[in-house]
Amino acid sequence: MSAEFTLSAGGYTAVVTARAAALRRLTLDGRDLVVPFPEGGPIPDYRGIIAAPWPNRIADGKYSFDGVDHQLPINEPERDTALHGLAFPLDWTLKESDAGSLTLTCAVGPTAGYPFVLELEARYVLDEAGLNTSVSAVNAADIDAPYGVCPHPYLVAGSSPLDQWVLEFAADSFLEVTPDRLLPVGVVPTDGHAFDFRAAKAIGSTEIDHAFTAIAFDGGLARLSLRDPAGTGVGISWDESCPWLQIHTADKPTPIPSRIGLAVEPMTCPPDAFNSGTDVIRLEPGARHTASWSIYAL
Description:
By secondary structure, the protein is mainly β. The protein is 1% helix and 47% strand. It has a 9-stranded antiparallel beta sheet with strand order 10-11-12-13-27-23-22-17-20, with no helix packed on it. A 6-stranded antiparallel beta sheet has the order 16-25-24-21-18-19, with no helix packed on it. Strands 1-2-3-4 form a 4-stranded antiparallel beta sheet, with no helix packed on it. It is globular, with a radius of gyration of 18 Å.
């Protein structure tokens, strides 16, 4: 059984697992702000994980970097893609912790399809304002490395069905994808589209599993709010290291419970970025990259 760590502050409680440095639970006064998963078992649907060294999927698990072709293991066989990086199945190592903070570390690579070496560090800090997370990556090898990262929380606004939750975030464009493999087609405006949530509106029956961009940052932060008509809500903010935002309404075929939370994933790069090159971070030897986000009750 993977170890886990509990943080408490200001009425908030966060539980983080060593496996994947995943946020297993986040509550305020007992109210879930993310979809939890059971202690000691598998992590369903990548809930709460840190996806690195790439977020989302890579088509066919293939990419080329500096003229060298690479083949990653396929872990999404139904779409023939490499999904959510290499740090997910690993147990991260405790570096330090106290009642309100936690730092976990993990080494990624060299491994099949990723002949690079990264040292990852995830730091969780819980206070009266919510849960603040930062993930740093250091290139520990002597060659440049491609890199990307995102968190994978499923937010919960309240007890009403997801269709009734009111969503708002400022993104002018989204990435159209193929319906079968969810691979990029092209960036299109949100204006006039069902995916336009620049003004708050109920999600309704809209099904989303898309990346958004042209995001508005105010004072260095972008924000998303998700509110239940019963009066509760949850928000997430993130810094400019993440110019992309994946939103997924967690649609599942029956009899699997569907639309139980809204996946909200600030990403440093879009899906299949190792092939498109869009916003891929090139980490030089010894270089560090840090991305940060916060989740809080509304």
